[in-house]
Amino acid sequence: MPTTKKENFYFGLMMCLGMVVFMTLYNLYTNGLIGTMSLKAMLLQFILCFITAFVLELCIVGPVAKKIAFSLPYDKSKRLFVILSLSCCMVIGMVLCMSLYGLGTAYFFNSLSEGSLFKNYLSLVVKNFAFAFPLQLCIVGPLVRYLFVRFVKGTSMGMPLGKNVVNDGIR
């Protein structure tokens, strides 16, 4: 996976883009807003969400998740274990943070359900985690890793597109 700061930036950009597209559509659908919001409003919501998620991933959640994932007791020479631990830590951190973003957005637009802010936050966390975790592990994560190795790693090492990169930094 990423071995330089530049590669880490591109990997985070790709992962955030994939997750934000699906999570935005999921949240718009579950809140019944797909037919009621204009395309312009949905696009604005997506852009604001993407910027927030990317800054969080790059500056806060990503570094903390990596620190936690690599401090866990498992065999770090096994690539699958590294990917799973990093993915789990990232999803947990991003769901906790982005659910706060969603709560703030709902509060701003007066669309919170009855109950306390804490109850609404926990409800958002559970709903978002239930969708984000399998999405990350089964769809977006593998797709982004494939595209990253195929296009970013292949070009950043001076190789033309289509060449396989053997050394991806993790064994």
Automatic annotation (TrEMBL):
- A Pfam family assignment: DUF2798
The species this protein belongs to is Paenibacillus polymyxa (strain SC2) (Bacillus polymyxa)
* Bilayer-spanning residue ranges: 9-29, 41-60, 80-109, 129-149
Q: Which domain of life is it from?
A: Bacteria
List, alphabetically, the InterPro entries matched: DUF2798
List UniProt keywords, sorted A-Z. Membrane, Transmembrane, Transmembrane helix
Looking at the keywords, is Transcription regulation present?
Answer: no
* Name of the protein in its database record: Membrane protein
